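Much of our argument rests on the idea that a fold can be written as discrete symbols. Part of our work consisted of pairing the sequence of a single chain with a tokenised description of its backbone. No coordinates are needed to read the tokens, only the vocabulary itself. The record that follows shows the chain in one-letter code together with its fold in token form.
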Amino acid sequence: MISFYNQNVEKPKINFQSVKKWIKTIIENFGYKTGNISIIFCSDNFILEYNIKFLNHNYFTDIITFNYNESNKISGDLFISIETVKKNADIYNVTENQEILRVIIHGVLHLLGFNDQQDEDILEMRKQESAALEQYTFS
């Protein structure tokens, strides 16, 4: 089950049913089943607190992913800073909704085992993000 929550911010104006279907399709394309995935939209300060508390990183980020996968079931929590997403949308000259979708699928790809620590991993992550975004149907 894929669920959406908000903490100290308003939920973005995206089609949550379409996003759920899209995430499930991407997960199935990799040969996995969808478990429980929570997507929590939050503020910069909220994500910074989590980044410090759980990852010992003292900086803002657009997403933090907590992986709870079991066997072939993809599960986890995706904390997404709406404030950082909005800033990044301006920087990359895309709409906020496009950037939200990119960040959501970035987190799902982390749950699927993709990383972005090394240059080659970053390139593969971007390739997978683009492929997934091409599959999204805007409605």
Remarks:
- The chain has one domain: 2-135.
- Residues 2-135 form a domain with the Collagenase (Catalytic Domain) fold (CATH 3.40.390.30).
- DSSP finds five helices and four strands in the chain.
